[in-house]
Specification:
It is a single chain. With about 525 residues, the protein is of the alpha+beta class. It contains 17 helices and 27 strands. Helix 3 runs antiparallel to helix 11 and helix 14 packs across helix 15. It is globular.
């Protein structure tokens, strides 16, 4: 901050000394710059960077870099303390591993301990050197993390789902501002929700996959039995995370059910990893597990009735081509955190941290390149779904435009309320790469795709508009990029190259149409903007 100078502050300081007797906790901040006026008051707090004082002018925040503290209440060397509370998906393994990596990168050693029910990580200099920070982790649930944030018991929430509207409202009422603002959330890694069965399942060949209708029917109890090949029908036992009698709304698994209630007989398990363990031991079991904690359970592909089988792989989760992606995030209680906390958040974006995330079984956020040759299933589906007439001509245009290019893992899909946090994160990542010159001398192609409705020309025009919106957002963010050194192009391909068929062509038979995904599911996957580099 800039210090007040001159006669006004001098007189105010005299008035302060005359009307405010010294009390416990009084300090004086002496500016290091000659000629500036000292500031006195009662010390309210110091986080290692900023002094907070109660003065005659009201509460003041003073940057420690510009002053020296005088008085018995001046703090000594500060130990930064950070408390993170929330989902065990982050708190059990992921964040501890990242704390270890962060400490090693800064030349610190980590001492693990406990503080009540919390796990405590003490970061200090080697060989018994001074303590620099304490990081406490409270693993319960995302909802408990937000509750701790409201009471001041935590500064950061570990979340495995989106913040709920009522949580946003309560945070505003508590004076924490808008927690849904983009700068209040950091996506750390990606996970996915997948249907799983036992290795010796009696519910049929897992490789056949489950259509969305069949999956919902089994989870809600509308379908109670499922037969294996050559065998009698077997009753299905549903396994879900959470406590008995509670809904799934507080869990990312809720997105699979889309607001519908699971069967009342579903067996509940306290943590997500326990679901996979229980299903692996139950030949008639079907559960919703997380791809980061499959254990011995077998993932069941999602089927669309056109021969496509979607698995939650590293690539399909990172690109969003799998429908049930669960970003793991940190929500920040205050926009300004202590320096060490900000340094930790910056570390999460480094390649070293992302490699640790991948080794932990999660999907990292590093940029991947995917050649056109690895789009075989989608190209085959595009040919099968192509409309008569100009359909083949449009496919040739697509191949001519994208041939020789690689697809980047950044993919843009909007949710029901518009661009989601991953959309904005992708804009920021590409803008940073453009400004750093990573794409200099090359062409960056924003290829828009849409769902199969409205005719090929209308679909292509709609897809191009969405690609242009992404281009405009990237240009607005990458203000320092040199666009004489990189070409930023847009193209609209309509309903070509679908991720899953949605019945738009009307060529499927009755059996196929029955198993095709619902419109919302297919539209969400097929309506997207891909990024290609050539």
């Amino acid at each position: 901050m800039r210090f007040l100078t001159g006669a006004v502050l001098f007189c105010a300081a005299l008035f302060l000394s005359a009307t405010r007797p010294a009390s416990a906790g009084e300090v004086t901040l002496v500016p290091r710059e000659d000629g500036a006026v000292e500031i006195g008051g009662r010390l309210l707090g110091f986080d290692g960077e900023v002094y907070r004082l109660d003065t005659i002018y009201g509460p003041l925040a003073v940057n420690a870099a510009g002053v020296t503290c005088a008085g018995a209440a001046c703090p000594g060397a500060q130990v930064t303390r950070i408390v993170l509370s929330g989902s065990p998906a982050l708190g059990d393994m992921l964040i501890p591993a990242l704390i270890e990596g962060f400490a090693a990168a800064r030349g610190l050693v980590v001492e693990r301990g406990a503080e009540g029910r919390d796990r405590l990580f003490r970061l200090r200099l080697p060989d018994g050197g001074p303590l620099r920070a304490e990081i406490a982790l409270a693993s319960g649930s995302t909802g408990e993390g937000f509750a701790d944030l409201l009471t001041g018991a935590a500064q950061i929430v570990m979340a495995d789902r989106e913040i709920l509207p009522e949580e946003i409202d309560r945070a505003r009422e508590a004076g924490l501002g808008d927690l849904s603002a983009p700068f209040r959330r950091r996506i750390v890694a990606l996970d996915a929700i997948v249907p799983v069965v036992a290795p010796d399942t009696r519910l049929g060949d897992p490789a056949d996959g489950l259509s969305q209708a069949a999956l919902l029917g089994l989870l809600t109890g509308e379908i109670a039995d499922r037969s294996g090949p050559g065998g009698p029908e077997a009753p299905v036992t549903v396994h879900l995370p959470g406590q008995a009698g509670q809904g799934l709304r507080q869990l990312p698994e809720a997105q699979v059910l889309g607001g519908r209630r699971p069967v009342a007989s579903a067996r509940r398990h306290g943590r997500a990893a326990a679901v996979a363990t229980a299903v692996a031991a139950d030949p008639t079991g079907l559960g919703l597990a997380r791809v980061s904690a499959l254990g011995d359970a077998v993932q069941v592909p999602l089927a669309d009735g056109c021969g496509t089988r979607l698995l939650a792989s590293h690539q399909s989760v990172k690109t969003g081509d799998y429908p049930y992606v669960a970003p793991l995030s940190l929500y920040l209680g205050r926009p300004r955190l202590p320096r060490l906390a900000r340094d930790f958040l910056d570390y999460l974006a480094t390649p070293a941290a992302q490699i640790a995330i991948r080794r932990g079984g999660f999907v990292d956020l590093l940029r991947d390149e995917i050649p056109l040759g690895r789009q075989g299933d989608r190209l085959a589906l595009a040919i099968a779904e192509a409309r008569p007439g100009n359909g083949l001509r449009e496919l040739k245009r697509l191949v001519a435009t994208l041939g020789g290019a690689v697809r980047l893992s950044e993919t843009f899909r909007s949710g029901p309320r518009g661009p989601d946090p991953r959309w904005r994160a992708n804009v920021a990542a590409l803008a940073e790469a453009l400004e750093a010159g990573h794409f200099d001398g090359r062409r960056l192609i924003l290829a828009g795709f849409s769902e199969g409705s409205g005719g090929s020309e209308a679909s292509a025009a709609r897809a191009r508009r969405e690609a242009e919106a992404v281009r405009d957002a990237i240009r607005a963010a990458a203000t320092a990029a040199d666009y004489d050194r990189v070409r930023l192009e847009v193209a609209g391909f309509g309903d070509l190259l679908p991720v899953m068929c949605d019945g738009g062509s009307g060529k499927a038979g009755p059996e196929q149409s029955r198993d095709r995904p619902s419109g919302d599911w297919a539209r969400r996957l097929n309506r997207r903007v891909e990024v290609w580099l050539r």
